[in-house]
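Exercise 7.
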Amino acid sequence: MAIALAGLLAGAAHAWSQEAPAHNAAQGGAPEGTPESAPQKPPKPAHPGGGAPSLCDAPWFKSGSKVQMEGDGALPMSITMALHDAVSSPTGCRAELEITSKSAMSALMGPPVIMQQVHVINIDRTPNKELSIESQHAIINARGRYARMFGEAAFKGTGVFNYAGLTIREGETLPGQTFESSLSLKIYPLTRDEVVGTMETSRASIIVSSRHVGKRQLIDTAMGKKECLPIAYDKRTSIGALVVGGDLVKMEPTVMHVTDWYCPEAAFVLRTDVEQDGKVQRIDVTSMERDTDIP
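Solution. The predicted structure, written as tokens, is:
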């Protein structure tokens, strides 16, 4: 989930931060299209609500939990996810989720986009309702090569967005998931507190196809050899209609083939392989820890 959120918002940030100053960011946008290989909207989850396994049941869904992830490839990234004020109930749970990410296009050899997100996430597993996760009025603070951004974002997701607590069998098919997000940011020069532009999108989305579970394997992870299940799917990410300074920038959706290596012992995806345009990026969990002094 953290990779999805960081990737979605970083995609918008890269539209301006690595190519042109803020006041020129609206020039040269590519027309939006839908690749033929784009996955269809996934079916509803098999467990629609009350008592269904969810993020709330994960052993690491506790205050003070912290996960570090590192990715290689054409878009190297570093993501830190931390949880605070986590509480659970029979009908759901909530927590403050803090995500700090650094990402850069290696071909441009420029400085990374540094982004901080603070979400209050609410997970609803009320009986007879579809399992969902939501964040409203999240705080976004980002800095790129030419400018910095500050503002708010919101998202809502439905479907299977976490494997912890599920009984996963080799050869089975798991439901997909959808995320819809909005973003409203002000753009500032690096050295002044003067607003020089705005960036908004109201219909950014991530659609994950149904997922196929492969054979359990012993693999190398950054945390040692682990027995893990490969879970493969297609993921379509769209920034939607991006409005920068009042000008419309149309961006093509991206379609990736993703394999999550879910390791039941850790109740976490310890490695993710992302294939796009014939190239594979590997994202590893490099550490998982919990500070019991954090509320």
